[in-house]
Amino acid sequence: MAKTDHCPICNVAVKPENLLRHLADTHPRHPDTARLRDELKSQVGRVGPRRASAPIHVSPWLVALVALAIVGGVGAYFLTQTNSQPFPCVEGVAYVYHWHTQLNVFSGSVPYTIPANTGIVGSCLEPVHTHDTSGLIHIETTVNRLYAIGDFYLVWHKSFGSPTQMIVNGTALPSPTASQTLYDQETISIYYTSFN
User: What does pTM read for this prediction?
Assistant: First the structure.
């Protein structure tokens, strides 16, 4: 059985290393507490009251590393957001113009379906977008500028790549180009050997 002492004030059994703390915690106002503590401290094997723990030391390089990680994470977030939305959202209804261009894309000789709501994310409507899978591109802009087929591909997150043929309103272009402007009531057909 472990050795115990008895408190000289209340006669409670206490481990010898805890007797000083017992006096300080249980009998702080008793008239004999100060004298008893002094006597007990002078005895060999007694442990004094607990010292306050040392403050936590954080090195400056660790703070800098954490700050750098946070700044890098925030920067990466905004870069990915910027890449996912190439144009600012169209706000309001005061359009400079509202045009429609029919886009037909072929992979081999098979029509490729352009997804519905391309360029629409939540409440954000990009200036070039689709509403359904018909290939009808809506160009709705509050900015006085023209948009090209390459702008739609950017919104679509597809590479324009190297089409084999591009036909605009029934006329084949000498060479397909992503800079072909999207005009109202126009039909553009783009042919690829393979498109994905």
Answer: 0.57
In the chain, what are the domains?
5-42 (no CATH), 97-192 (2.170.130)
Contact present, 167 and 188 (Cβ < 8 Å): yes
CA distance 68 to 188: 48
Residue-wise pLDDT for 70-100, tens only, equals 888 877 665 555 445 678 888 877 899 999 9
Nearest to 156, CA basis, from 190, 184, 108: 190
CA distances from residue 154 to 3, 40, 123 in whole angstroms, order as listed: 81, 82, 19
Six-digit token pair at 35?
A: 């004298």
pLDDT (tens digit per residue) in 60-73 = 888 888 888 888 88
